[in-house]
UniProtKB/TrEMBL annotation:
InterPro entries: Glycosyltransferase_2, Nucleotide-diphossugar_trans. Keywords: Membrane, Transmembrane, Transmembrane helix. The chain crosses the membrane at residues 282-299, 306-327, 333-352, 364-383. The keyword DNA repair does not apply. It comes from Herbaspirillum chlorophenolicum. The lineage of its organism: Bacteria, Pseudomonadati, Pseudomonadota, Betaproteobacteria, Burkholderiales. This is Glycosyltransferase family 2 protein. Pfam families: Glyco_tranf_2_3. SUPFAM superfamilies: Nucleotide-diphospho-sugar transferases. It comes from the Bacteria.
Amino acid sequence: MEMNFAVQLILLLGLSLLAIPVCVLLVQAMAAIIAQHHATRLRVQRPRIAVLMPAHNEAGGIVEVITSVRAQLEPGDRLLVVADNCSDNTAELARRAGAQVTERFHDQKRGKGYALDHGMAHLAADVPEVVIIVDADCIPEAGALDMVARAAAHSGRPVQALYLMYSPAGAGPMRKIAEFAWLVKNLVRPLGFQHLGLPCQLMGTGMAFPWKLISKAELATGHIVEDMKLGVDLAREGRAPLFCPEALVYSYFPSSEAGSRTQRTRWEHGHMSVILTQVPRLLAAGVGAGNGALLGLALDLCVPPLALLVLLCAGALAVSLLAWAVFSLWAPAFVAALLVLAIGVSIVAAWMQYGRKVISFGELMMAALYVLGKLPLYLKFLVNRQVEWVRSKRDTE
């Protein structure tokens, strides 16, 4: 009897922890379905902006990105490219395309955070009102820079554009599933929280900051998900990021398996590290201070990558069913089944409202193969996690 009680208690405690991210995802998906967002032009004077673009060996596509950015600039605005540790002609191409360029080389301090810090020091000689960070492989749609700049100037807070990644032409179902998972992470979830008046995470590109805010931020780090860290740091200061879904910035997943694997490892290992190191402290700080924005960001961050969450729920159900068979404990199996149902409802609801243009229902049903294919990445986190920033290989290389 005592053994049964102990096993049930342990299982229910573990399921309770797992229920937090599952419930957050469910709430976000349901809120996103009923959310109504319309592009509205803020009636505030357009601030003077500087677009800061970190670039490492981006010769293959930087001209197209610079062209799209320059088309949205007004007199007095600037576009500064930081050619960071480049071994190709990124800097030369950027100058020819009409951008201001500063080059940076350092053998040890490598990564996007150091490039951003270098660029901010360069911008300080002629201070803009708003800084917008755009990655050198991301294209902002027409009007995107104007919208996030006005929103940042009006709110005094960081503003995150909608950042989507598309599958390359001719991509198979696994890449389309990855595109759908990205859509859930970067559109459905932040849109749901926006509808509830809660902040979003920073996504690394399409981010606008008032100068007074970003100039004080700690950027010179080699953190592999520097955007998440920056969002957490600013939220602690009472400046949690706002979501601007009307402004779109987009890029493409690498076609090569090596590029995709590097990209996924950096993003997902970094996210899991943030969950372990930042979320407990953020939750405590949000509850202790009665800060809803901080608590909301902590809850959003606690949701792991979608494939991992599915794996955890499936594993919890399997263990709970085993406990039912061995110890006749039905309560954990019932709770685990509810969690599996909740995550299934969240995914299907997100697909019906936002994902049908990305992936067919038949392709979505192949997600089990996609989830199992991610298992080595998650096991690697346990034995040899990535802790340094590594750039993904581009298709042009």
